[in-house]
Write a structure and sequence with these properties.
The chain is of the alpha/beta class and 289 residues long. It is built from 11 helices and 8 strands. The chain has one domain: Thiamin diphosphate (ThDP)-binding fold, Pyr/PP domains (Rossmann fold). Strand 5, helix 7 and strand 6 form a beta-alpha-beta unit.
């Protein structure tokens, strides 16, 4: 048995009071506890940003890497030991900006891991610059006259890019968010959960009240997550309605072969379980020196 108390740490989160990250870390711990996943079999990787402090606040294995690099770290961990439960976390700037190249390619490979994005539509750690998901017209430190670029749509990109589980949650609804995390973790394949996470300090547009008035649940609307075209319709609904309607829930879910299943080297045993002491690498060393 794993309890939330087991997953607690002594350190206090260094996030602003009211930040949506507080609800996310509680939901992550709740999901892991309810699924009964042993702490020593769980790894959380992150990049750089407010969101990327999350591995410090969950009593499992963790790795805080470089900005935008949580996904390559997570994929490396999964290849080393594909029996582990691997979660990658990051922000919208970290994952959809700096790390966008990794985001696009990991989806088509379909690793069995979950990616939780703290999407606050701003660069929070660096005090409020526009991010790829900042709404057009939004005034920030880098866009004093308003954002003019087309907004990046992570859900539509994930659906068309090959992700086999695509969902959205809202940090103001922690019970629903926890269920999205549980579904993502138990899904066999690459799972994206984009979390609408209000930044109370630097984003005065996308507030808790903003999302509460607009969000509705896909399962209550009769959405079929196996239909890719309906999933795309829902993914582009927000921008097309000027964000008057914002769906949360599972947009798309499908089963496809895993990247790990295609590798004969780990079919019998994980890499960490394989005996390496009898392998002679002297020829390789000589060639490289």
């Amino acid at each position: 048995m794993v309890t939330i108390a087991d997953l607690n740490v002594k350190e206090k989160p260094q996030w602003c009071a009211g930040c949506g990250n507080h609800a996310i870390v509680v939901a992550v711990k709740g999901a892991l506890a309810e699924l009964g996943i042993p702490q020593h079999q769980t790894v959380i990787s992150s990049g750089v940003g407010c969101s990327s402090k999350l591995p410090h606040y969950v009593n499992t294995y963790g790795f805080e890497g470089l900005h935008g690099r949580s996904l390559p770290v997570a994929s490396g961990i999964k290849l080393a030991n594909h029996k582990l439960t691997v979660l990658a976390v990051g922000g919208d700037g970290d994952g959809y900006g700096i790390g966008s190249g990794h985001f696009m390619h990991i989806m088509r490979r379909n690793y069995d891991l979950s990616y939780i994005v703290h999407d606050n539509q701003i660069y929070g750690l660096t005090t409020g610059q526009a991010s790829p998901t900042s709404q057009p017209g939004m005034k920030t430190r880098t866009t004093p006259y308003g954002v003019v670029e087309t907004i990046f749509n992570p859900l539509a990109s994930a659906i068309t890019g090959g992700a086999t589980f695509v969902a959205r949650a809202f940090a103001g609804d922690p019970a629903h968010m926890k269920e999205m995390f549980k579904e993502a973790i138990t899904h066999r394949g690459f799972a994206l959960v984009d979390v609408l996470q209000p930044c109370v300090t630097f984003n005065k547009l996308n507030t808790y009240d903003f999302f509460t008035k607009r969000c509705y649940k896909l399962d209550q609307a009769g959405h079929d997550p196996s239909d890719i075209m309906k999933a795309l319709d829902k993914a582009i609904e927000g921008p097309n309605t000027n964000y008057e309607k914002i769906a949360i829930g599972v947009f798309y879910k499908v089963q496809k072969p895993l990247y790990e299943d295609s590798l004969p080297q780990i079919k019998e045993k994980t890499l960490v379980e394989q005996e390496l002491s009898g392998i002679d690498i002297s020829a390789v060393c000589e060639e490289m020196m």
